[in-house]
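anyone seen this seq b4? input:
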Amino acid sequence: MSYPLVILLCVGLLHQTARAVIMDKLADNKICGDAECSHVLSMATALDDFIAPDCRFINIKKGQMVYVYSKLVPEGGAGVFWSGSVYSERYVDQMGIIGYFPATVLKETHKFTQDTVKIPTTGMDFYCD
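predicted toks r here
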């Protein structure tokens, strides 16, 4: 492989990763259904619209079904945020995208597990691409 091609490839890879940002942590701990936070804790319905203020959050429309994967443990005076993904045939482009949202815009409709695990959050929990 020629040197100019290698340099161009490296610059291209650096350019793609330069956009990623680790944002401020919203909490130091979270509650999950398992140690990897891969099991759904609950299903909820959006009571109101929520517009994501930055890349850590997801947009939610009133009436949408939301899968909740984790619940952040609030610090003193902080808001209560959960993470999850939306489910809706109307918003197929958003399905599978996991982000945060205020717990106050949802009403839990079904809890899948009562057994939860409290684990520390990491920088990757608040990573933005």
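Confidence is low (pLDDT under 50) at residues 5-11, 13-18. The beta strands are 21-22, 29-32, 42-46, 65-73, 81-87, 99-102, 106-111, 117-120, 127-128. kinda curious what u guys think
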